[in-house]
Amino acid sequence: MEQTTVTHQPGLSLNEASASAVQEEEVKGFIAGSEDRSNNVPAATDPVLTQPGLGITTTTITTITQTGGGWSTGLFDICGDKTTCILGALVPCCLDLSLAHQYGECLCMPLLPGSTFALRVGIRERYKIRGSACEDWTTVYCCYPLAVCQMIREMKRRMKTQTYHVSTALECS
Q1: pLDDT band at residue 166 using 50, 70 and 90 as cut-offs
Q2: 113 FRET partner, CA 20 to 30 A, in 3, 148, 159, 172?
Q3: In which domain of life is the source organism classified (predicted)?
Q4: What secondary structure, in 3-state letters, does the chain show?
Q5: Do 115 and 136 contact (CB within 8 A), yes or no?
Q6: 97-112, pLDDT tens digit by residue?
Q7: Ramachandran sector of residue 14 (left: φ over 0; alpha: ψ -120 to 50; beta: rest)
């Protein structure tokens, strides 16, 4: 059985008496089985079959990251970023906290033994930098402040190369 809904539309005045009369006529018409609509029925009683939708929004995010090759700066390239160099010389542990944050790790991670070594291996693996775990261990434990400065410079340079392109398409239904 088909259900008919009478809606009030702005601009059309439809009082309760005429609305109930129209509903009674339609109910009688459906019960009798006749699908004929008389011309004297107001246009406001036609059922609304579909409502316009908001559409479908599609978002595409493309990430471009430079990978491969060696470290972008050398271990002793301290003149490349003077702020990082000064922080690395005076408070390398604070620089290690910043590095963990940039890498996406918990700020408590640098407090764990071996965490800087793990971060260096992680950075090398993430960006596919040539090297070995032995080289990473030697660098971190023999030249800790220089290693942290190099890792910070690497993260800054690699993060700059990421490009986010967001396009939104609206499809109306």
Answers
A1: low
A2: 159
A3: Eukaryota
A4: CCCCCCCCCCCCCCCHHHHHHHHHHHHHHHHHCCCCCCCCCCHHHCCCCCCCCCCEEEEEEECCCCCCCCCCCCCCCCCCCHHHHHHHHHCHHHHHHHHHHHHCCCCCHHHCCCHHHHHHHHHHHHCCCCCCHHHHHHHHHHCHHHHHHHHHHHHHHHHHCCCCEEEEEEECC
A5: no
A6: 999 998 888 888 888 9
A7: beta
